[in-house]
User: Fold this.
Amino acid sequence: MPRTQVQTRLNGVDVDFLCEPRQSLLEVLRDELGLTGAKEGCNNGNCGACSVIVNGRVVNSCCVLGVEVAGARVETIEGLAHGDKLHPLQQAFLDEAALQCGICTPGFIMASRALLEREPEPDEHRVRYWLAGNLCRCTGYDKIVKAVLGAAAELRDAPKQEVK
Amino acid sequence: MTTVEKPAYSVIGTRPVRPDGVEKVTGKAQYGADIRLSGMIFGRVLRSPHAHARILSIDTSAAEAHPGILAVLTYRDLPAAEDKMEELGESNINVKEASDNVLASDKVLYRGHAIAAVAAASPHVAEEALAKIKVEYEILPAVLDVRDAMREDAPLLNERRFTKSMGGVMSEKPSNIAAHNQFKGGDIDAAFADADVVIEREFTTSMVHQGYIEPQVSTASWNADGTLTIWTSTQGAFAVRGLVAEILRHPVSSIRVVPMEIGGGFGGKLPIYLDPVAALLSKKSGRPVKVSMSRTDVFEATGPTSGTHIRLKMAAKGDRITGVQAVLSYEAGAYPGSAVGAGAMCMLAPYNVENFQLDTYDVVVNRPKTAAYRAPGAPAAAFATESVVDEIARQLKIDPLEFRRKNASRQDTRNVMGVAFPRIGNEETLDAAINSPHYRAPIEGPNRGRGVASGFWFNGGMQSSVVAAVNTDGTINLVEGSTDIGGTRASLAMQLAETLGVAYETIRPVVVDTDSIGHNDVTGGSRTTFASGMAVFEAGMDIRRQMITRAAKLWSCTEDEVVYEDGGLRCLKDSTKELTFKELAAQSARTGGPIVGKASLIARGAGGAFATHIVDVEVDPDTGKVTILRYTAVQDVGTAIHPAYVEGQIQGGVVQGIGWALNEEYFYDESGRMVNSSFLDYRMPTALDVPNIDTIIVEVPNPGHPYGVRGVGEVPIVPPLAAIANAVADATGHRFTALPMSPRKVLEALDGLE
Assistant:
């Protein structure tokens, strides 16, 4: 199948890549660009393990075609930390023990980041509602919700950490 | 936290960040699907569309001719396997059945049964070629339900299978019942004749899946000299190596299995499916091959846990349970080996019952071969026991937890195998539940109810090996072979830090491949923190002994005169002579060379885990939806090494139990096709479906472990099924004996339509 050239801005850097029109953004990230932080759990938009942010919106990258991100801003888990400084969400997931196997963690962190960008002060119910598209089978969600609420508080107290 | 006789620890009981954490929150951790090798191609598997059929022919010629196809595989590429049991470490496998489950030969026994595989440079091309493989089937009648399969006239999955009963006696006629066993004690007839109350009920639970988020995936590279490397997502790299060696008739030493980070297992990643397929595709193509499953493949073709049917009759006299009779029938799936025995062995463990008769039936059906799922066998059995215990307590007008307390098993109570319990924390757990803020708070409001239930799991021991190398800067590399699914790198490093009296941060644990450490059994049975922890303790003591020898040499005294304490050494006869761990480590090159602690052991003395759960629910009479309002899980863990991960294990197990109780089930149409094989339709709990799960950690140290560890991960899934059913009964007056209690079923029951 012929491949299409696509230009996009990925984690703040201009990138071009070639992909088949049938390849999903998830396939492009993982197989063409070598970014394996987004995970495949279901490949049909049900589990959220492949969550990335496109133009500020959280999407299941398995349900977006690679060619669709032409000209878009794409953010993945690989772009979240600054050098060796973790994003407050990443640190909160570590401190709260909000991961066990960790396969869903990149998706949860990216979905949570999209939430906190829009709503800096969500309550517990709002966090649970927002994250209902991300499945975790290990933790029972308790510590994930606490980590997101904790990171939200941290980001509100130190908003400058978020500059990007 | 309730604590019994707990020593003062400096590292154990703290909540440090896990060693593998940063890689997992930054997306750098390498899971099974994340590996990419030079020249690697992709494999895909053709699966049966039928639940039961004879394979008449397989024609792969068109697939082989498809442009870009580099290898095609069928059962003909597998070595012929004998239909007999082989011992394999801790388990016995029938190699023919194991081989047939990898690639079917004569028959397909469930929809999704693997038949052929292809490999190509692109997974899309591989999928195109799969569509060109022609398989001729003779479709046979399928049997999907355990009770249907037990009928005399049921279609047989295997005409040469006979029922094996106690003492190895085989049935005269072939049957889908692979095995019948019995546990018996006391005199149940007398117990029932003499009882004040007798309640008999029938229970059913649906087949459910572990639901790990990472699908199975395996990558293999076969070299011309016969050496084979497999990178895979597994709970046990050594088990994969052994099974692949057995199925491919290949020497164990030629196979290296590299355990990648694992995206959940819960027992479902103990069996192998793709590893031999990837290996043979690699052998044929000369390229490394990665084979992965889709989510539908995972549902249809990997081991879920059994659907069950249980009939249970219980007698009580005064406030005592005096007798239990039960018949447990579990779906094994396509091949024998359900966890029905474990279910029977666990179901009465929380109670001191002298008179019992438990019959177990292991039954094959046209569904995927079942695998372990968190406390395998126990949740369905506890659903039956704990529902009837609740009903009897109500009938006797005794508080259900007080009733359990009066009948509680304790040290020296004999279990159904006739073995006396060592020190257990059952009563302490019940006391903590009775005194919990949750249980002491009233439950009020219409359509609301509260339920409680208890549960038991053995916890495992088995084999572990570790090596701990001391570096000259005082840090330590801890090499281990147990898959880390939920924080065991942390719990093992913490135990080593405690043993040596050094800081947790100085220890770097690493999980290595099968060439790089001695044998380790699987991460399963809640055994890793217990058994590998015991190995870590022994390796730490080995280091301490070596350091004492060296200090004695340096100080020209005897070893008896050197004391190791608080992460350092001192001389008893000369108080000026002291060395910290770090100072002595720095001198290793001058005192005898590298200091390396080692231990390989079979961990004996596993201590059983007891749990009691309390749940409040609200049932919507208009929609039938059951909402969990509040949940408290109380559990004896022995010693909580890392309390945050202990809580996490408990919370995760509870939420899986909530899914099992309320929503999850394999839904088959009449032809044996699973119609809900996606995460959208197989409805696992989301963050919005559950409240925070409160945990109360009870610590009754296990005398069989240097730090009192029991094991955590499994027992929390045992009580939720019955606890929620008991709560729904309290809320509605209707007792549900069939799971899941989905909105439709609840509504039908409330409307009297059941």
